Amino acid sequence: MLRVQNLTKRFGGLVAVDNIDLHVREGEIRGLIGPNGSGKTTFFNLISGFDRATSGKIEFMGSDITAGSAHGLARKGIARTFQHIDLFKGMTVLENVTAAAQCHARPRFWSSLLGTPSVRKEDQALRNLAMEQLEFVGIADHADDLASSLPYGLQRIVEITRALATRPALLLLDEPAAGMNPTEKQDLVELVRRINASGVTVIIIEHDMRLVMGLAETITVLDSGSKICEGLPAEVQGNPRVIESYLGSGGVGKKQTHAYAAEPSGALDVSGASQNPAAKGQDSFILSVDSLNSYYGNVRVLKDISFKMREGEFTALIGANGAGKTTLLRTISGMMSPRSGRVLYKGEDITGLSSDRIVARNLIYVPEGRGVFPALSVQENLMMGAFRRSDKEAIKEDLEYVFGLFPRLKDRRNQKGGSLSGGEQQMLAIGRAVMSRPRLLLLDEPSMGLAPKLVDEVFETVMNLHDEGLTILLVEQNARAALSVAERGFVLEVGSLVHEGPAAQLCDDPAVKAAYLGG
Ligand SMILES: Nc1ncnc2c1ncn2[C@@H]1O[C@H](COP(=O)(O)OP(=O)(O)OP(=O)(O)O)[C@@H](O)[C@H]1O
Ligand SMILES: [Mg+2]
Asked: Residue 251 and residue 452: Cα distance in Å, rounded?
């Protein structure tokens, strides 16, 4: 169905896709994996007409589509989802899906302006088609919800429904499970199987190995733009090159020595923390959250949240998508105001302060997914993290420290933030936070979009930061990994804190296991 020959894409001196051959059979589910920045998304961009190949050929159902436009290829039957969710936030779910279905409707500028009966009929038909897809996918009861009000996992499903609404023969999924918890991932696997059984060929990019290995019959592995391996999941998993470049030895919390772990950690001096007089006062809590209530419109998202964190503590916050974890971090960091309650930071009431003034106090929030400045270079983005600092020498050291943590960022230091791959942007967001020398770090899903080997490395980095005295509040869908590195855990359920305890204890708690650790 899809035959790709010698496909190459260059960006200046960088070869993002390097002479790739790939054949996909009709009816197949193909897995596409590889390290961050190995060219997976670029490959999707080429075969879906979102970008033009430098050389090579793409054939789809017998016709040459190498020079096809995105719109033209959608009509020919190729649909895709995006690594970063790309919904119309101000529209309802049904409107989002209807807009996508429109790609198959005839152009009809005048008649639609005049609102003729045939147009109204066609609109109704499109809406019916969209509704059918929502039912097929199992989210019809959310049809009238605003897309932006849905939890992350469901927004991903809406993205897939939008792609389905164009009635594709070939569906390209770019990291559909990113940010999903184990239960949502299970539902996703079933959905992809159903889509495939309905006659749609699927290519899926995914960093969750269990998921992609369980779904795909054949896996193709890219590294630095080239195809390095292709075969059955078991063959690929055992391939030394794949292990070396992508899977890693896989042991979060094992304290293995990665390149950066050998570096002197002095670059990040947070030892002054305990000398802070406020912290020494009657209470040594760096953060106290007191009966916090936050709303989106009329919806109460945080319900009387209270907890405290000691200086230097490492706490994981886990809970289903939509439980309110991100809202809690946003409220603490001043991105949104609570309706009632208080946030005390080092004894000072910071409730309602602007996020700028909170950042100035070295309370740093790293949002999930992107958050990089697209028009600035990698290095400029990193320097933005340090813009309040004047200690030039130390800033230079910290920059080298970050480049040591993420050598990829060093290679790309002059590239624009917006053109980085998904995983590279995530590295940049974490690196920028490190550059600001935080005292309290709020991390929202740092592992999202990262290759397995890098997930281990990022967790190790976070552990190292903690060893150096930093106080960390970590939000993760990957609850097992989070609890294996943190000391303490909180569980948030529909806006309320329902469990709290030592991380190891939560890991063994049957209720927590069943709900958040995938059984
Ligand atoms: N417009 C561009 N200009 C320069 N370099 C680019 C551009 N777009 C992508 N790149 C680079 O090409 C490489 C491949 O990027 P791509 O997005 O395809 O990676 P990926 O395999 O999807 O990675 P991830 O798993 O992190 O999403 C990256 O190193 C990226 O920085
Ligand atoms: Mg990508």
From this structure: 10
- Rounded to an integer, what distance in angstroms lies between the CA atom of residue 48 and that of residue 203? 12
- DSSP secondary-structure letter at 436? T
CA 426 – ligand 2 centroid, Å: 11
With beta carbons less than 8 A apart as the criterion, state whether 192 and 204 touch: yes
For residues 473 and 289, the answer to whether their CB atoms sit within 8 Å is no
Q: How far is the CA of 82 from the centre of ligand 2 (A)?
A: 9
User: Which domains, from first to last, does the chain contain?
Assistant: 2-107+116-247 (3.40.50.300), 285-517 (3.40.50.300)
pLDDT for the residue numbered 514: 78
In sequence order, what E strands does 14-131 have? 14-24, 29-33, 55-60, 63-64, 78-80
Instruction: Tell me which residue of 467, 148, 408 sits closest to 459, measured CA to CA.
Output: 467
Task: Give the burial class of 429: count Cβ atoms within 10 A of its Cβ; 0-12 exposed, 13-18 middle, 19 or more buried.
Answer: buried
Name the strands in the sheet holding 299-310, side by side, starting at the edge strand that comes first in the sequence.
Answer: 299-310, 285-296, 340-345, 348-349
- The minimum-distance atom of ligand 1 relative to the CA of 14 is 5
Q: What percent of the chain has pLDDT over 90?
A: 59
Q: What pLDDT, in 10s, does the model give residues 353-411?
A: 998 899 889 999 998 766 788 899 999 999 998 988 889 999 999 999 999 988 999 99
Per-residue pLDDT, 261: 28
Q: Which ligand is nearest to the CA of 35?
A: 1
Distance 155 CA to ligand 1 centre (A): 24
Say how many C-beta atoms besides its own lie within 10 A of residue 297's C-beta.
Answer: 8
Q: Which residues line ligand 1 (CB under 6 A)?
A: 11, 14, 16, 34, 36-42, 83, 412, 415, 419-424
- For 130-162, b where at least 16 C-beta lie within 10 A, e where not — what string? bbebbeebebbebbeebbebbbbbbbbbbbbbb
How much is the pLDDT for 265?
A: 33
Mean pLDDT of 234-254: 76
Q: Which residue has the tokens 């019959």?
A: 217
Question: Ligand 1 centre and the CA of 49: distance in Å?
Answer: 16
- For 50, residues 6+ apart whose C-beta sits below 8 A from its C-beta are 44, 70, 80
Strand order in the sheet with 363-366: 363-366, 440-444, 471-475, 314-318, 488-493, 496-502
pTM assigned to the model: 0.81
Q: Is 411 exposed, middle or buried (0-12, 13-18, 19+ CB in 10 A)?
A: middle
Q: What is the C-alpha separation between 17 and 39, in angstroms, rounded?
A: 5
